[in-house]
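Changelog entry

Holo records now carry the ligand SMILES as an explicit input line rather than a separate metadata file. Below, a converted record for zinc ion, shown in the new format.
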Amino acid sequence: MVASLAKEYQRELAAAGTFVALEELTAEIGDEFGRQLCENELLDRAKRAANVEQCECPECGLLCARGEPEPAVLQGLRGQLAFNQPSYFCRRCRRSFFPSGRSLGVAGTQRSDAENVAEDGLGGEQSGQLRDGRRGDA
Ligand SMILES: [Zn+2]
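Structure line, unchanged by the conversion:
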């Protein structure tokens, strides 16, 4: 893996004229590699979570049908992570919601969940901030 990265970044590595420049470049490469690895895993988890046809409304408990997945962006330690999260619509509460972040192994992507990150699974160790691309909820 390192050898293939070295080959891919051969020119940039050779052009790094100082130790600091070399370290900065390799840290950037490592960060991007980590970001992509994380994003791929999130995409996989979201895909698996999206197979769930129905989900209980967090407000009233009604079983709700799955809607269209919505794009979400997580601000991670190494940059933004984009994936599509499954969404559901509760007819009783007349609101769409996203299942708990537990199904993705991360805190939910609703704004209110972002404040409760510590209560939701991995939250305690998660320094990234949650942000989604939704407009004001209907
Ligand atoms: Zn509901």
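Spot-checked after migration. The chain has a mean pLDDT of 78. The first strand starts at residue 54 and ends at 56.
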